[in-house]
Design a protein that fits this description.
It is built from 8 helices and 4 strands. It is an alpha+beta fold and 224 residues long. Helix 1 runs parallel beside helix 3 and helix 5 crosses helix 7.
Length: 224
């Protein structure tokens, strides 16, 4: 079975998939996509009409899987030997999916709204209200996550096992912590440090390091 990941190392959603691949030890080939290149963008759109990465191409099965959460679940089904990232227990699976949606919707979405605002051309209309709303959403997210982590007191987002939710959390927190730092939310800070020490996430961060100049908001001193 030949897997090919169409992605960019600096994308948070792509890092979510990379973490899953590294966690499960799945061999795959890489196609880095520059969306600024019309031919590369067209090639991606030929696989997934929306033209967004990541996209996983299972050449052996003739299957194309877009969207990061769907890719992680596909890996569980296609490579069932390692422990699944979506738990087999139905209740635990629901928790993993809920918190995956939390990180994508309540952390990634407002974080990316702020970043997109910073990329507006100088003569484009500004949206200070939208930026303020995004910041408020991140503050609500930090409070909710802090309470959840304090409640269950386990190492990872939904308990003792590393799951789909943690694959989503790691890159989301990495970038959102620059946009709206979660300093003072002690459970979130401790959780992020555990994620940062996870070999799969550390590998994804290091592979993305050469692309850090692409980030429009700059980097805090010592951010790793």
């Amino acid at each position: 079975m030949t897997l090919r990941l169409h992605y960019h190392p600096f994308s948070s959603y792509c890092q979510k998939v990379l973490i899953a691949l590294y966690e499960r030890g799945v061999p795959f080939e890489r196609t880095i996509v520059d969306l600024g290149d019309p031919s590369q963008k067209a090639a991606l759109a030929a696989l997934w009409p929306l033209g967004k990465f990541p996209v996983l191409e299972d050449e052996g099965r003739g299957v194309v899987v877009p969207e990061s959460s769907a890719i992680v679940e596909y890996l569980d089904h296609a490579f069932p030997d390692p422990p699944p990232l979506v738990p087999a227990d139905p209740d635990a699976a629901i928790r993993a999916r809920v918190w995956d949606r939390f990180f994508d919707g309540w952390v990634q979405a407002p974080m990316q709204a702020v970043i997109k605002e910073s990329l507006r051309p100088g003569d484009a209309p500004r949206d200070p209200w939208g930026v303020a709303q995004a910041g408020s959403e991140l503050e609500r997210a930090w409070a909710a996550l802090d309470a959840e982590l304090e409640r269950h007191g386990e190492a990872w987002a939904t308990g003792a096992d590393f799951t789909l939710a943690d694959c989503a959390a790691a890159p989301a927190l990495f970038y959102a912590n620059i946009v709206r730092p979660f300093a003072g939310h002690r459970a979130v800070e401790a959780y992020y440090e555990r994620l940062r020490e996870r070999p799969s996430f550390d590998r994804a961060v290091e592979e993305a390091r050469p692309f850090r100049p692409l980030f429009p908001l700059g980097w805090p001193d010592g951010y790793r």
